[in-house]
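DM from R.C. (forwarded with permission)

"hey, sorry to bug you on a friday — could you get me a structure for this? deadline for the figure draft is monday and I only need the backbone to look sensible"
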Amino acid sequence: MLKTLRAFAQRSLILGTALAVVGIASVADAQDSDLQKRVEALEAQLANPLAGWGKGPYIKSDDGLFSINFGTRIQLRYTYQGRDAGHGNTNTADSSFVELERARMKFQGNFLSKNLGYKIEVDTQTDGGGANATDIYLTYKHKTSDSHSLTFGGGQFKPFFGRQEKTSSSKQLLVDRSLANEYFSIDRNIGVWMDGLAQLNEDGAFNAIGYHIAVTNGFDSVNRNPSQTNSEQDHIPAIIAHLDFHILGNLGKDALSSGDLKERDSLGWTTGLSFASDQNNNTNSNTRIKFKIYQFAWDNVFKYGGFSLNTEYFGRFLDIPGDGMSSVFTHGGYVEAGYIVCENTQLVARASVVWDRDGSYGSNSSATELAVGVNRFFKGHNLKLSADVGWLDIPPGMTRNTEGFPGASSAATNIGSGSANITTMQGVLLRVQAQLNF
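My reply, with the result:
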């Protein structure tokens, strides 16, 4: 009996010890599992922090439903204008100055949903007369399928008319945009738009088509009071449309970045078609003129092995009743190229022309730009030093540039920053610019 009790006690002790060991192991496993989850959560948080630096500083919520990204663009530019006596110009004195061509702050991100976005950008510059809003808009992204996506937007924005104008000023080949672009540009508008991208195939030719459609207050609708009572603008909407065909290599967003900084190992080719129309029937009481404008553009982007080639052709039909300008056709374009000659150094060149009929005198006139330059990249387009020198020949009396409509018929043509806001000039234009952009 005693032996039996002793054996039972030994078995009970062994069993209890075993159960204790199992219990301790279970607790340890649970603690290890909990610790592992905490480590994984910490690693995920470190890999996807709520604040930090991406393309610029950002802050976001842990669920990704709210975010704000901060950005800036500073372009400090030196300009020299050497004028001659061409076009009867009596002011042949040279001019030389330093300016802040662009000094911008932007805030963009999403709210309430990962698909609902916003952007606010403010610009100030030496010749801009204070701070002005450039972009203020809302967007909604909708993916209809794996191969097709849509974006809807509304506010103050830059419609897609002309590739060079749509390409950011921070990503140009030369210091600024071409003479032809500045003449035919419609710049920013106020209205609504829709962007779409259809992926046709992953590889091969013709693999994607992009499109853009916009309805706006007009080519000159920014900072204009839309009330007819105040006679600031008409109420006939402008229509803008663009089609992109990614023929080879599907450049994607890189089609809106000048130069081949990636030095592609295969040819990329994107071509685009743009259309825009606007009119004013002078129903308000202001002195603005009646007009109808229909214009188009055809552009091409080629990139391969550090070489890039951009071409764009513009045409405009203009009708101003009673001013001797019925169905006047003005056209022009540019060709520009860049090549990475050595690490972080790019040589560039451009030729641009606008052929115009003088509305006042019934004669033909043309404006010309020829330029060469160099870019030194320290961090891509985000930090670079650029310089170009060119010959400009802009005669007097040219028809008003597109962005200037609507406007009084007596107003002079003003071709924008691409030619340093020069209305009439024959001579040399030299520019050197330092840029910080993120």
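R.C.: lifesaver. The helical segments are 2-47, 163-166, 179-184.
me: no worries. The first helix runs from residue 2 to 47.
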